[in-house]
Amino acid sequence: MALDLITEREVKDIKDCAFYHTMDLPGHGEIKGKWDLRKNTGQYLGGIDFTDKKVLEFGPASGFLSFYMEKQGADVVSFDIGNNIEWDVVPFAQYDHTQLFKPFIEYNNQMKNAYWFSHKALESKNKTFYGAIYDIPKELGDFDVVTFCSILLHLRDPFKALCAGALHAKEKIVVTDLAEAPKVYSKNHMYDTSLLGRVKNACRVLMNKEIYQYTPASIPYFQFLPNYKTLENKDVWWYLSPQLVVNMLGVLGFEDTKIDYHEYELYDKLTPTYSIVGTRTKSAPKDWEHFLKNS
């Protein structure tokens, strides 16, 4: 697969941008996004010292974490989905799911605009490659740290994506994701983790309207989130428990792991998340590339 290096993209009007993260930009002030990670950003990234580290970031969106790591002294390369790559939308049989491709591409293009708009405003030196996360060319090179920040839940095959990234990670992999499975992953219907919200959820269970299963965090498990009855979660595939991610990283040679829990604002509501730092203890098996090509 060809590697598409983007060194600059001219974006003159902020109205052409979609900010996934809340950001503070010189000359523009605070710009609101879906996620606000500005408080304790380092904790979100696992508490790693990024000084003089070469970092590969998957799924930069509007780039908040890219620019944060650069400010901490990292040499950052961001890898985002190419314009000619189909999104991993859920192929519901109940309607023509291909109608999602165009709006998702348009939204992603606006996020890329936000990235490059911010890149210029912050005078960043970060580099960006566009392509397919399941098919990353060797030419991309090796990195000290590889990050997967809240993107595995959006991928049809999160293990394959982790495997592809692991081939480029010399020291560490950072994975962050939601610490609780959302009932509905949308602006107006986020799973309510407040005390009152939990009481309401319990009442719904007692009324047999909805049933929630609470599985101990120590058990590694997937939860498949798309709902064919309501057509909810069109681009959100999985809840991945922390121990599941720990097991995946262990399989990939990152046996030394650390889990941290925290909360950040998603749509102005505190949302529980976790971050896992996996440190490489075993070298990559020689047949991993064969696995990626044939899976």
Summarize this structure briefly.
This protein is of the alpha/beta class and 295 residues long. It has a single domain, classed as Vaccinia Virus protein VP39 (Rossmann fold), CATH 3.40.50.150.
Q: What features would you highlight for this structure?
A:
295 residues; alpha/beta; Rossmann fold; 9-stranded mixed β-sheet
Please write out the topology.
Layout: E1 4-6, E2 23-25, E3 29-31, E4 35-36, H1 41-44, E5 54-58, H2 64-71, E6 75-81, H3 101-121, E7 127-131, E8 143-149, H4 158-166, E9 169-178, H5 195-206, E10 222-224, E11 238-240, H6 242-251, E12 256-266, E13 269-279, H7 288-293
Parallel strand pairs: 5-6, 5-8, 6-7, 8-9
Antiparallel strand pairs: 1-7, 2-3, 4-12, 9-13, 10-11, 12-13
Describe the protein's architecture and organization.
A 9-stranded mixed beta sheet has the order 1-7-6-5-8-9-13-12-4. The chain has a two-stranded antiparallel sheet with strand order 2-3. It has helices at 41-44, 64-71, 101-121, 158-166, 195-206, 242-251, 288-293; strands at 4-6, 23-25, 29-31, 35-36, 54-58, 75-81, 127-131, 143-149, 169-178, 222-224, 238-240, 256-266, 269-279. Helix content is 24%, strand content 25%. The two termini are 16 Å apart. It has 7 helices and 13 strands. The chain has one domain (4-184, 219-293): Vaccinia Virus protein VP39 (Rossmann fold, 3-Layer(aba) Sandwich), CATH 3.40.50. Strand 8, helix 4 (158-166) and strand 9 (169-178) form a beta-alpha-beta unit. The chain has 295 residues and is of the alpha/beta class.
Number of strands: 13
Helix content: 10-25%
Strand order of the largest sheet: 1-7-6-5-8-9-13-12-4
CATH homologous superfamily descriptor:
Vaccinia Virus protein VP39
